[in-house]
What does this fold into?
Amino acid sequence: MTDFPRAEYEARLETANRAMHANSLDAILLASEAEVRYFTGFRTQFWQSPTRPWFVILRRDQTPLAIIPEIGAELMARSDIAEIEAWPAPRPHDDGLSLLKDRLGNCQRLGVLMGHETTFRMPLNDVFELRAALPAEWIDATDIIRDLRMVKSDREIAYIRQICGIASQGFARVPEIANAGHSLSSVFREFKRMLLELGADDVPYLVGGVDHPSYDDVISPPDDRPLSNGQILMLDTGATLNGYFCDFDRNYAVGTPTKSAQRAYAKLYDATDAAMEMARPGVRACDLFAAMAKSMDTQNSDVGRFGHGLGMQLTEWPSLAAWDETIIRENMVLTLEPSIGVDGGGIMVTEENILITDGVPILLSTRAPKELPLL
It folds into this structure.
């Protein structure tokens, strides 16, 4: 049983096969969770353990081959992969290596993900040994997989829309769990619980911050400091449903916010509007960055970008950054995430999730209020 019907995976494989022909690749070797799941539907928490590697070989004009630990063979058999070879992992002296050598021995041009935002989940010593043993030339297949995954199918969009709706409901109820005197750690715990009760499968990502006149750290674990009047609280969640993420945040003033916090929030709201006005097929990712930067009268971002792609992973290609010239296409799902410094100290970040259409983009997250919400 997978998250999509067989036709969805067949379409992905056929597109990959055409790309292999166009790039004269005999095969593509996949060894990362998102790519394996994208082509097979194999979804499991076992990827969290570093003990066992997992491989799928996309073979030109043939069905894919899974080379995986024996413990995953039954689940993989429920996917759309008919050919599975397994070994009793962990077996450090040969964790699938001999199987890979055998099955790739006749390959002349092998595609492997080597580019930005990719990983090859295999011990480096095994990578060196495999590369030395194979006659194949190793070719970077990042662009092939990137182009496939950036544009979402209707079913993928439906999952993202649904989890965005769940998170939007949760954010609307934050005043029930966050007020002056509540600790940041308790707010985090209660917000996760709320999202699960609303229907999220998991909340693997929840970050945020709180401070006066605004927060300056959005990646540290929450502590037990109580919220107090004049602070800004920010929560940013990546909840999941059927393996697909939402990723957006909300800001709240605890009591009366400072004028500087209100001004920053208004600038961020306008910056998001500027990006929404421009977000159409044919513009570049860097154009959206520039539109937000111009709206806020800045030329750069301390965090490097003002948004990114979204889907099976919390952050995906492209980056809404000055250096990314990726052409925006219909059915991409993007986050718009401008950030700005706050006079008197701290930063502020806002984020929305949008779907690119052939016209006006569609908000998948319920738009944040135009005025800074008060707790």
Summary: DSSP finds ten helices and 17 strands in the chain. The domain at 154-363 is CATH 3.90.230.10 (Creatine Amidinohydrolase).
